[in-house]
Each structure stands twice: as C-alpha cells, then as structure tokens.
Amino acid sequence: MKTDIGIKEKNLTSNVKHLTAVLSNAMILYVKTRKFHWNVAGPSFMELHKLFEDQYNDLEHDIDEIAERISKLGEKPIGTMKEFIKHGSLKESETNPSQKVMIEELLSDHETVVKELREIINTVEEDTDDMGTADFLTALLQSHESKAWVLRKYTK
Predict the structure, then answer these.
(1) Which long-range contacts (CB under 8 A, 24 or more apart) does 55-60 make?
(2) Which domain of life is it from (predicted)?
C-alpha cells in the first residue's frame, strides 16, 4: 500500500534519499567510534573509553530512529556496510591512531555531519513540505553539535 501522509511521492523519495545518506554517515561514525572505544590507550584511557561508549550508544539509538523514519516514509532502509559506505560521505578509519587523532577524526566527522544536516534540513523545509523529517533532522543536528562540542574541549 502506498504511503499517504500528505507529502508528494517525489518528495518522499527525495527525503528517503537524504535520510539514507544520514543513516549511512551515522553507521560509519558508529563503527569508527566503537573501534576507537576498543582501541583507545594512554593516559586518559578510561575517560575516553567511557566517552566513546556513551557516544556510540547515542549513535546506535539514532541509527534505529533514522531507519524507522525511512520506513515511516514508505521505504526500506539499507543495511549493509557496503551500502553505507556507498551512500555516506564519511570515511572509515583503517588505522589505530593515537588518542589525539581519534578525537580529531571523530570531531571532524561530527562537524561534517552537522554541516550536511544543515543543508539537508534547508532542502527538506523549502522543497518537500515534510515538517516531520525536518524536525527529526534538527534533533539529530543538535545531538551531533553536542558530541562535537565535547570532543572539541579535548583539543584545547
């Protein structure tokens, strides 16, 4: 049965495409944060170990919510790392960097996501009449801003 929630089909399709990119970046960032949680070492080990765990737990929740938003718009979310890498703009971390580099990478990724979300939200608000998706994405943006803020404090 077609999704009939007051949004044109072409706009639903457009927003699912945007949400797929958001889902992909969230999954890539989740995997990277989890990897860093497992591999962090050094003077601030326990503090960063717990910080990364808190952040990947938040991302895990976000991932589920993004996938469910895609379903609410009438589509099936993607679900393989190959698809996430194809649709995302973030890159995996293929090394085991120092604490400093881990923090810098995660900070950069969150800032990238924030900038991309701002663009997507503007498009969704102006072009698709999908206030639910715009509000949903705004909450995600605020979450990434908070995570970036915390990570940025470690770079001072």
Answers:
(1) 55/106, 55/147, 56/30, 58/143, 58/147, 59/26, 59/29, 59/30, 59/33, 60/30
(2) Bacteria
Residue 139, pLDDT score: 98
Q: How do the domains of the chain map onto residue ranges? A: 9-153
pLDDT for 1 equals: 76
Tell me the fold of 9-153. Ferritin (1.20.1260)
Where residue 58 falls among pLDDT bands split at 50, 70, 90? very high
Which residues are within 8 A (CB) of 141 and not within 5 positions of it... i.e. 6 or more apart?
A: 114, 117, 118, 121
CA–chain centroid gap for 83, Å, is: 15
Above 80 in pLDDT, residue 30? Answer: yes
What letter represents residue 67's amino acid?
A: A
Output the pLDDT for position 37.
98
Could you tell me how far CA 60 lies from the centroid of its own chain? 9
